[in-house]
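User: Can you recover a sequence for this backbone? Please restate the input before giving your answer.

Assistant: Of course. Working from this structure:
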């Protein structure tokens, strides 16, 4: 407490700041939001992506650390390359894209930046089930026309292409039989 009014006989603790006692507050970071109590900024403010990244970069449940690998991996949703880095992190950014395989195609899901504080309604998904050329064109157009993150376009196209290549049917090689001799 910054005002120094305590019930015990201890001397009052000095306030580190020169703000009035009503302004001293407790900052709690939870789910990407600041909650500031007893301040002119009371309510919730969105935490910046950089601050959220600094909090979770070395310690979160999605990290996969190995001894001989310098770059750590991450299994979080909406991380296109599964690399633990600020650029590809799907938890801290307001806009992120995820591509997952479905039967004969892939599902694109993305965050709506206006509903970033509402987890139930912030994710939108669309399934694309067409040939590879048309599917990749639609994905590129979806990212470009929605004015989404341009830095994720190439990674999203590569992931979708890899998913479509993995879904190709392998043709069985017909074995040629020797001709019957009379």
């Amino acid at each position: 407490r910054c005002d120094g009014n305590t019930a015990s006989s201890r001397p009052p603790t000095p306030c580190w700041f020169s703000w009035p006692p009503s302004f001293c507050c407790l900052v709690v970071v939870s789910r990407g939001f600041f909650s500031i109590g007893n301040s002119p900024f009371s309510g919730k403010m969105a935490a910046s992506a950089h601050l959220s990244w600094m909090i979770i970069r070395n310690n979160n449940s999605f990290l996969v650390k190995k001894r001989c690998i310098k770059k750590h991996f991450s299994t979080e949703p909406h991380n296109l390359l599964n690399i633990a880095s600020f650029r590809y992190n799907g938890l801290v950014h307001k806009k992120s894209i995820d591509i997952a395989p479905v039967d004969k195609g892939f599902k694109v899901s993305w965050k709506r930046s206006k509903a970033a504080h509402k987890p139930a309604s912030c994710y939108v998904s669309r399934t694309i089930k067409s040939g590879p050329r048309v599917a990749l064109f639609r994905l590129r157009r979806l990212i470009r026309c929605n004015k989404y993150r341009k830095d994720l376009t190439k990674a999203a196209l590569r992931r979708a292409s890899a998913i479509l290549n993995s879904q190709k049917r392998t043709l069985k090689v017909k074995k040629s039989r020797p001709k019957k001799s009379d």
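That completes the design. Residues 132-145 form the longest helix (14 residues).
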